[in-house]
Amino acid sequence: MRRRFIETTLAAAGAVFLVTVPWSIPALIDNFWVSVITEILIWSLFAASVNLLFGYVGLLSFGQALYFGFGMYGVALGIDRLGLSFWPAFGLGIAAAMTMALVSGIFAVRLSWHYFAIITVVFSLIFYFLAVSMKPLTGGDDGINFTLPPVFRFDGKAIGLTDPTFQYFFVLAVVSLCFFLMYRLINSPLGKGFLAIRDNNLRASLIGLNVYALRLIAFVLAGCLAGVSGALFAFFGRYASATYMFYQVSGEAVVWTIVGGAGTMFGPLVGTALFIVIREIVSSHWEHHSLIVGLLAILSVIFAPKGIVGLWNGWMIRLGEREPVKKAPSRLTLRAEP
Amino acid sequence: MKDTVLLLAMNGLIWGLIIALIALGLSIIFGLLDIINIAHGDFFMVGTVLAWFSLSLTGDFWIGFLVAPLIGFLLGAIIQRLVIQPIHGVAALSIVATFGLSLILQETVRITFGATPRRILAPIPGTVPLFGVDYEIYRLFAAAVALAALAGFFLFLQHTRLGIWMRAVRHDRETAVAMGIPARRVYVMTFGIGFALAAFGGAVAAPITTVDFRGGVDVLPFCFMAVIIGGLDNLPGTVAAAVLLSFLEGLIQSVADPTIARISSLVLMSAVLMLRPQGLFGGFTK
Known about the structure:
- The structure holds 2 protein chains of 2 kinds.
- Chain A is mostly helical.
- Chain A has helices spanning 2-28, 32-56, 64-80, 86-108, 113-133, 135-138, 164-186, 189-199, 201-206, 211-237, 247-260, 267-285, 290-303, 307-322, and strands at residues 144-145, 152-154, 157-159, 239-240.
- Chain A has a domain at 40-247.
- The longest helix of chain A has 27 residues, at 2-28.
- Chain B has a single domain (2-275), classed as ABC transporter involved in vitamin B12 uptake, BtuC (Orthogonal Bundle).
- Chain B contains 11 helices and 4 strands.
- A two-stranded antiparallel ribbon of chain B has the order 1-4.
- In chain B, helix 1 crosses helix 6 (161-171).
- The model of chain B has no long low-confidence stretch (mean pLDDT 85).
- The A-B interface holds A 54, 60, 107, 110-111, 114-115, 117-119, 121-123, 125-126, 129-130, 132-133, 247-248, 251-252, 254-255, 258-259, 262, 288, 290-291, 293-298, 300-302, 305 and B 36, 38, 83, 86-87, 90, 92-93, 95-97, 99-104, 106-108, 110-111, 217, 221, 224-225, 228, 232, 257, 259-260, 262-263, 266-267, 269-270, 273-274, 277.
């Protein structure tokens, strides 16, 4: 009971915090941190795409930056070259990421573990080098800039992401929707299939699950999450660049996910927030903030091998054990454990 | 035209031998400790930086050939005790820990060595005519050194007590421990030797490439490719794959730009992974 109380309070506090960010943060610190929190939300969605594959299907992808990059370029090229308005460009970015995920997934999900990790990084490197070399189209390392179209027109007035408060709520809404859909997915029969494959793919195939198809579905959905975050990041930065497709970007998301807690819903959010907040705080005081980030990564896997959320869950379970055992209800009912 | 093809193919071959050294280090660390070492490219980079420091401090380039692997070995042994041992060979955690290690190594080098890339002049100047091309003598020398180091490493694995222990632990950890092989010591030594191989490769390669704190970033994927294409349990295969990949890339570079060459070797790599996941040479050994 106490555990549920603590977690509900925490979730409510978190929700209140996120909704009031545009007012509370400028009042408490300054405006700059609103954009940092916006960035954290976007990157946490990217980490969630790693988590969907690694934490729930057991596939460690080192190439999610590819789909992030496709989401970015879909938006940037859609607006800058094709002259699309906001929503079609958003859609183009997501569609480009999902298509790419489908095409590469058809090959990649046939492999597992090391081979899967390597082939995903190889695919992302191929397109990274392509993007760098096709400078007229992609702008290479410098990237391409674009001007934001309005999100919608209301009473003849254009409302767009140029307003930081609206931008924050737009990102919050999209990211929350994605996390909610992912939560529903994991708790659906499809999600149970994912977990079965993660725990033992041979057993999963013996009980009649189509391991290949389920992995492909997960791969495309993860590509979709990465694409949404890439598209959001393009809107947020008003540009797209090939550097975001490099393997180190994928690697960072893997680190954020594992440090936060792989296989937990909010682990990626916690890990991303931790690393970005530390980066922002330390980098303004000390040039060599990477030392602290590196040390933190090492310490966290040594002392919290299940991630921060995993550590938290462990505390909560221990807290539960200390509570007095409740008397069993007089009429015992049998039910299947989920 | 024929000259450039030859020149680039030779460059590829020699670079491949150096990559082979680094990839061997990656492979023994992976094979023995189940560690996916994201920091391995930086081990190489540390080697190039150590070569630069020993040159600028003593004025003698060759001291770097001794200093780089020695300090590399010590660093590797210390890192194994402090960072790798507490992880107990969980592959997912090893990625995060070595990622952190990579950041720390890069940043330490940036603080001490600086952020600007530097070049080391070839310690053996001059060129020698070879198949009608004037070829740098140092590159040929580097190839010879790399070959000697590769041969030395395989002899070490076959004929020394530690080498035999390493092969035994790699082959079957539990039996090896039951036979009284001190596995923990073997782990420390293996990580040290892996670092030393990469650092030695760095010292040999320093006059050929630039010395830069981000110098390991490009080398890392290449080493992983060599290990996978060569076959995970196949050390000679790793060497062959590194040389082959680099040689092919050199050949393609003579007709297309380097990016296209890099892309084609990546495509080749995907084909190998799809068609022969046991590695290109999987059928030939054992």
